[in-house]
Amino acid sequence: MTLPRTARTTPADRPTSLLSSAYRSATVGALTLVALAAFESLAVATVMPVVTADLDGRSLYAVAFSATLAAGVVGMVAAGAAADRWGLARPALTAISLFGLGLVVAGLAPSMEVLVVGRFLQGLGAGSISVCLYVLVGLAYAPVDRPRILGAFAGAWVLPGIVGPFVAGVVADTVGWRWVFLGVLLLEVPAAAFLVPTLRRVAREHGANPQPDAAARADEEAGPALPTGGVGTSRPGVRLLLAVGVAAAVVLLNLASSLAYLPRAAVALGAVALALVALRPLLPDGTLRGAPGIPAIIAYRAAVAGAYFTAEAYLPFLLQARYDAPPWLAGLVLTVACVSWASGAWLQGHGPRVEDRAALLLGGGLALVGVLVELGVALVEPHAAWAGTFVGVGWLATAGGLGFAYPRITSAVLDRTPRAHHGTASSAVTIADSVGAAVCVAIGGLVFTTLGTSDSRWPFVGVMALAAAVAGLSVVLARRT
């Protein structure tokens, strides 16, 4: 993948309201889609035990999640390439349709196997939607307004994060789990309708293949700054094949923890090798070694996603297994973190403007501090009251820091990339996020099962140490941006 350099765009002196006539339909449609995807992600985790019991599919419980994640990587690559080649409208509407089709298939599934197919389609659509929304930001919003709309994307997770699991549980208990899927579909249609005017406007203004501005074209003539890491990776077919390889590696890593020690190690090493080989051509050259500039920014995204989601996956488990905390208390930690994340995102969009490097250093630094607090709790095992307090404060800091940094990651990449390459740039950011989280969570699972069971502190210590190491890596990468 090639991401040429571009001259820095001079922002307008005055930001425009995200609900002004120029942005209103795009803002409402995009934020609704983000909120629906957030609700679906959190709701499915709540109702999946009920679903697997009803469909007699306990053996496919993990696959129902890994299929979505793996398909998301493929969708991200496909949407990025399609947006660069054909413009935004076609891949955006296709992505929304795929997500909706997945909701229908899952909601009407007569068996667990069919539900997994529906979850795969949801992942394919959701991964594509995430890339398309980033491209929309690059094409429809002025540079000065991008950090605020990207921050609003993070804020759109707040309400689903607070009420999503509870609402999903109530729906499953009253009208049935199928309406957790079908109900989202009813709201997706009007959200897509809000986006149509903006998609038409973008097509008129930028054509089928958006071209970079004059400064970017002049810079491109000097030669690409970030050559592809592999041969032929500009071809959509090759990129899709590589994405399938990454997805297969993610699935293998998720399955490895169920194997005996020697096969587990062999499968894990093979999966990591496959992921690295397939991932390298999909990202700007130098990303895997954190080369300065865009490669370091994208590698930073993978690192902070890996650290955050690895620790988050085990925090409720830590509180319940080691301190007998009730589920509502463990969930409260995640709810507070969701609010903290949104607050950080709002602050970076509305507070004093700081340089990109400073924002990323702040996010990575707070993530490291927060995860180290969780590591200390796992290692020392203080009294239950203190443990809950420390875990909450630590995760508050981590979520707030990353909420501040996350929108700036995408904004920084788009600002440094010509419009003609916003699709592949956005695809690289989302691929790094998804693969970084998936690989680190899977490795965390391997660490946990290798060090013992929840009856011991050491599996939790191992997982938090892994998350802390990855968070520390993000600080190093932030200094190279």
- The count of domains is 2
Q: What is the number of helices?
A: 16
Strand content: under 5%
Rounded average pLDDT: 81
Please give the number of β-strands: 0
- Class by helix and strand content? mainly alpha
CATH topology title of the largest domain = Growth Hormone, Chain: A
Question: Can you walk through the features of this model?
Answer:
It contains 16 helices and no strands. The longest helix has 32 residues, at 384-415. With 481 residues, it is mainly α. It folds into two domains: 20-210, MFS general substrate transporter like domains (Growth Hormone, Chain: A); 286-481, Up-down Bundle (Growth Hormone, Chain: A). 54% of the residues are buried. 77% of the residues lie in helices and 0% in strands.
Helices, strands, pairings?
Elements (H helix, E strand, L loop, with lengths): L23 H31 L6 H26 L2 H19 L4 H29 L5 H10 L2 H17 L3 H29 L7 H8 L14 H21 L4 H19 L14 H30 L3 H24 L5 H25 L3 H32 L6 H30 L6 H21 L3
Short recap of the structure:
By secondary structure, the chain is an all-alpha fold. Helices cover 77% and strands 0% of the residues.
Notable characteristics:
481 residues; mainly alpha; Growth Hormone, Chain: A; 2 domains
